[in-house]
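User: These chains co-purify. Model them together.
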Amino acid sequence: MAAPGTPPIIATVGPDGSLMAPLRLFYPYDRTVGAVIGRFLTSLAAKKIEGTRGVDASVHVPPLEFDPATGVALTEWVAVGDTGLVLTWSWQPEPFADNTLQQPFAWALILLDGADTPMLHAVRVASVSEMSTGMRVRAVWAAEPTPSITAIMCFEPESAHG
Amino acid sequence: MRDVAIVAYIEGQNTSATTLSPVEMIVPVVHEILNRANVQRSDIDFWCHGSCDYMTGQPFSFVSAVDALGAWPPIMESHVEMDGAWALYEAWVKIQTGEANTALVFGNGKSSAGDMNRALTLQLDPYVVAPLWPGFRSLEAMGARAAIDAGTVTERQMADVVSRSLRDAADNPNVLAYGYRDADELLDEPMTANPLRAHDCPAMADGVAAIIMTTADRALEMCDRPAWIRGIDHRIDFQNLGLRDLSRSNSAALASYHAGVTKDKVDVAELHATYSHHEIILAQSMGIDRSTTRMMPSGGALVANPLMAAGLARFGQAARQIFKGNADRAVAHAAQGACLQQNIVAVLEGN
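Assistant: Joint model of the two components:
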């Protein structure tokens, strides 16, 4: 099955004479994300970041549906900030076509202000030398946020906003 | 518990990009291992396979592998969407239940089918991680930095692991990277996925690994010195990266404890350390002293990483050390998922 709108796949002859054809991986179906992730993503489209509070009072962002220690369903929502702390990071020297940033950038686990567990996202900096563990970053929202984790286009150093 | 031993291990030629189909890759390995154990197809009660549909880009792609086994007369077979090491665990359970006595387990992967660093992102959380397309290497690099920042791993230790692995690989004809490079030389190389250097990352391969395991009744017919599985356990950590301390592996620690790794000396360890820092994190988490245990004499997954076969290969390579009498007690380990999320550990003994 081909993704809607994708060009037809044309086989080519490989170096040893065998026929080769590209294969594009994608999910050919829609899924329901459920009440908890659904609320999280819907809030992101409104430029709000929310998490759920665990049994031990920890605030989890992205939200957890169930408490990691006890398995109890989590129902209390907590709004957190769109600024936070880089707990660990790495460098992506060449972006994939699917990344929100199309330049070399960093990945980081970011502990948002008001949250107790960090979330993964991209960090936009001019070069790797601007990255450090413990640096503060701020969310950069997509021009037209959709209910998706990519509503946040990336983070960037808080200082970049003066 | 029934005593179960690994009695034969074969791996196909690891290549950087084969044009063979998975079935064509598996057929000769299955023939060779049956010959090695001197058994017939009819001696195998249970066949179990590990592979990954995301690598072939096709659901149920593993079904075609049955063509490599021969499905008539009917055979009892199963598949796990995991490295072959987890197929070995299923086969071990099958033998424990009494439903089978002898099992052939195999894992295969064609890493060259695409950019696996990118494609395997699809195995991550589909809502809050996969849409960002982080790629596995970036996540492993974050794990390395977490360990470096925590002071449990140093860049020099990582370079020492690479130096030793490349050196050991020179004695293994089935690798894609080898050489004699000391840690200073390696540390002079630039970082790519900072804090990782290119040599901290695995040499991706297309390959197949296969193991035959059986009970005490027949083990000595198939092997002069079987590798008895004295303990085996597998555990899993949260999929949420943010809930885990990436500088260690809790699930590897638990699996190691329940497999009984630290009950006695460990002569040899074959750990499925795909990135250089994994070896250090795993040894610390599993209670293995790297100064007294011979680590990865095969060179490990750093020098040849056939996805979905490389973990089973660690079990096979550890068993080989028992077969040859180089070790009396060996630890085999395999990992799956990002940042050592899932771990299986076994203790193999010669007596």
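The domain at 1-134+201-351 of chain B is CATH 3.40.47.10 (Peroxisomal Thiolase; Chain A, domain 1).
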